[in-house]
Design brief:
By secondary structure, this protein is an alpha/beta fold. Helix content is 47%, strand content 17%. It has helices at residues 10-21, 32-41, 78-85, 103-110, 152-162, 173-183, 188-193, 197-202, 204-223, 236-244, 247-250, 252-261, 268-275, 286-295, 301-316, 322-329; strands spanning 2-6, 25-29, 43-47, 52-54, 57-59, 68-71, 93-97, 115-121, 124-129, 132-137, 141-144, 167-169.
Amino acid sequence: MRIGVIGAGAIGGAVAALLDRVGHLVEVTARGDHLAAIRADGLRLDGGWGEHVARVEAAETLQTTPELVFLCTKAQDARVAIEENAHLLRGITVVVVQNGLAGLRQAAELLPGSECVGALALYASSYLSPGHITVTTTANTYLGAGDGPAPEAAVEAARILDAAMPAFAVENFTGCQWTKLIVNQVNAMPAITGLSAQETLDDRRLRAVITASMQEATRIGFDRGIRYGSIQGLDQRILRFVAAAPRWAAQLVPLLMKRRMGATPNPGSTLQSIRRGQRSEIDYLNGAVVAEAAAIGRGAPVNAALTALVHEVEGSGDFIVPGTVVARLRPLLQG
């Protein structure tokens, strides 16, 4: 099958390499040194799903019409990527593999002639150097759209992807997006401190901040009428506990998330972007919580503060030591 992967970074690179390994004709988009490395030496994958060098076609935009596309850019880059490739996407299924809440909706608006479905990648993957992707934690990818049963396009795309990596079509995809947004609450602190996700969750002071942001986000979702989907060991019942429990008890959930990450340091996608000198997608993670709160006339001060701190690091290039982070956020953590 001819498959296009727009954005062959940490997540898209893994998708592309594994689909190539099971025999599909894969074309990817990339830029700069990453593109040059893929053209010269192939796309090299290692880590949790084994080793493979994918000799794929690569350019800044797709050059041929695919039968199926995975859109794997960062959320802030998606609009431009869609517009650059739109002429080749009409009439086919486009799988939007992105963090945050807005990606699938935006793709559907920009591609009215395509069948757009969403995907949530729960595995952890790192773009270590040009042309080289490492899977640090294996996990499932979930596909769907909307609040009801998974559409047939999502079921078929999941079947194709599942031959390469664990993938499932799910109902209540909107609820699953919100659950993934809660999972992504662990991304901001590594970006602020330069530590791995495991290290930030090991630090009792930082874990309290992460728990507070997770509780705030979960409560906003419930207030928005969200029915959380069941992914990554989290579901409606557990997140109801997170929202209602005192912070000392709610910390059990991020600790369980840490256990699922395994021993290989997980920097998170936001820190990876900062290390490469690129804009992060924090506005689509913690920033999305702030926007959703504002939509119902509420505030989300912890998530707003974390978003601001990530932008501060993006601007200065300097990470902030944990003690300073905690001191600056302490007024928001009272009670």
